[in-house]
Amino acid sequence: MSALAWGVGCAVAVVGFSLAMARWRSLETHAARAERASRPAALRDAELVYLEKLFRISTPVGLVAKLDRAYRLPSGLLVLVEFKTRWSNQPCLSDVIQLSAQRMAVMGQTGQSVASYAYVMVKTQAGRSLPTAHCLELMSDDQVIALIRRRDDLLAGRLLPRRPLSLRTCDTCSFRGRCSGFSH
Ligand code: SF4
Known about the structure:
Blueprint: H1 3-38, E1 47-57, E2 63-72, E3 78-86, H2 93-110, E4 114-124, E5 132-137, H3 141-156, H4 168-171
Parallel strand pairs: 3-4
Antiparallel strand pairs: 1-2, 2-3, 4-5
This protein binds iron/sulfur cluster.
């Protein structure tokens, strides 16, 4: 290969690499902008520290929880954020339970402080493009532990389930096939 051809080849490679880097930076900037736009306004100055990450503890109860996002406030406190798409723009009790279990798992595995509140970002299937932030007070660790132990007792048949306030709850319950308290 002549020196000229080699030089041209190198120049083409450098230009190609630069274009690829520029494209990658543009995609990264777009993703960072989208992430910033989707977070609760109260976390504007926070740092995104965990994204779709699994946490696990074995004591005082076995618990595995995958969180959507966790942000670190300038104070060092972590705040959990969960994203949901549903028909109604409202938080549910299951959001509180899920985020409370996540909080317990993150604190247990990492020893970091996690806020006793969290956000569920609800996007409606036929609504606005950006989700709405709902701030939720979380359950204490003792309440989460009691819930897990009750669930274990129900599954083992040591306890009978209480009838829910609305029988419609049974219609979508994943334990319905195994539930002796379900009778309609
Ligand atoms: S099916 Fe059983 S466990 Fe599920 S909500 Fe109804 S009573 Fe509770």
